[in-house]
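=== Structure Prediction Worksheet ===
Name of assembly: unnamed complex
Input type: mixed (protein and possibly other molecules)
Chain count: two
Listed entries:
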Amino acid sequence: MSIGESSTPLGKVRGLGSAREGGEHWLTERITSIALLLLGSWFIASLLLLPGLDPHTLAEWLKGPTGAIPMALLVIVGFKHALDGMKVFVDDYVHEPGSNFVINTLLLFAAVAGAAIALYALAALAFGGAQ
Amino acid sequence: MVVSILHRATGIALSVAGLAILSWWLMALALGPAAYATFDKAAHSPVGLVVLVGLTWSFFQHLLSGIRHLSMDTGAAFELGVNKRFAVLTLVGSIVLTVLLWAWLLGYVK
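=== Predicted Assembly ===
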């Protein structure tokens, strides 16, 4: 891009400063972080308060709404926050547009697949399907 | 600066290994005793314990430095002294919380 005398005012500033996008991504990352602060604390506190950590106690806990619902939220918000965070990392180090797009798309697929697997496990526990 | 780099490193560890193990753990519980025994055996192996303790520390470190970053987003804690104390506090806090949680998990604290 030329920034010589012949450049228009728009030409001089294009590519500099705000890209007019990314604000929502930035805010979403912070809102999910606050949600995960609550959900993560819930997860640790639950493990501490359970009568035991054997598979039977754990399964009974995750079958009920007080276990299943927050855990489903932890999975969904956790994968979303991880995806947003990994995107920041990828955008910082992979500048070539093609590679950047491919890696971010693969990360999106991995996050959605991972969340689907975890949610299937929770549904199977709650409604009895996997065994 | 170290704490800022750790925020990234622990975030990546939690995203990749943390969420994979969480999903595996939930799937093992759903699939029944045989699948859970496989997970349990891996979790209790020396490598498994190192990974799980590492992820626990990553969780607490990322959580505490995340709180630090959220407060800095509001414009607070940019003074050098305060900023450094806050950073050191996240390191001390994450180690203390990890030791306490694992002391309890391994049955040393009731």
